[in-house]
Amino acid sequence: MWFKYTGIRVKDLNRSLEFYTKVMGLKRVDRGTMRAGGKYITLKDEKSGQRLELNYYPPDAKFYEEYYEGSELDHLAFWSQDVRKDYERLLANGCTTAVEPWDEGSFTLAFVRDPDGIWIEIEGKKTKPKPDKNKQSA
What we know:
Blueprint: E1 6-9, H1 13-23, E2 27-33, E3 39-44, E4 51-56, E5 76-79, H2 83-91, E6 96-104, E7 107-113, E8 119-125
Parallel strand pairs: 1-4, 5-8
Antiparallel strand pairs: 2-3, 3-4, 6-7, 7-8
């Protein structure tokens, strides 16, 4: 057995597709309709090979249930070269803050919520802060 993808329920399939392809950089590799009436889109990260399946179940679909924001999934993790920069970019592109960036050991981490409230972890190696050009040396 091996891990293939993470599936998440979304409220708006087109909005989620646009977010995960344009903002998060995933590529669409498959799209279809389930026998039970739902629709899905499979996305893939070119670098890691990880897959994400976006699932939408309209009210008349067999597996439809009321959507409870973020309750079906803990989080998705993305590696970053610059956590703080990507954190700000994500906030500017429809995400909301879950946990602001912090350093832990040799890593920097942060959490944001995507447009549906699903938590996204941003993790990367801790980078040295850039010197403040406004401070003068003593």
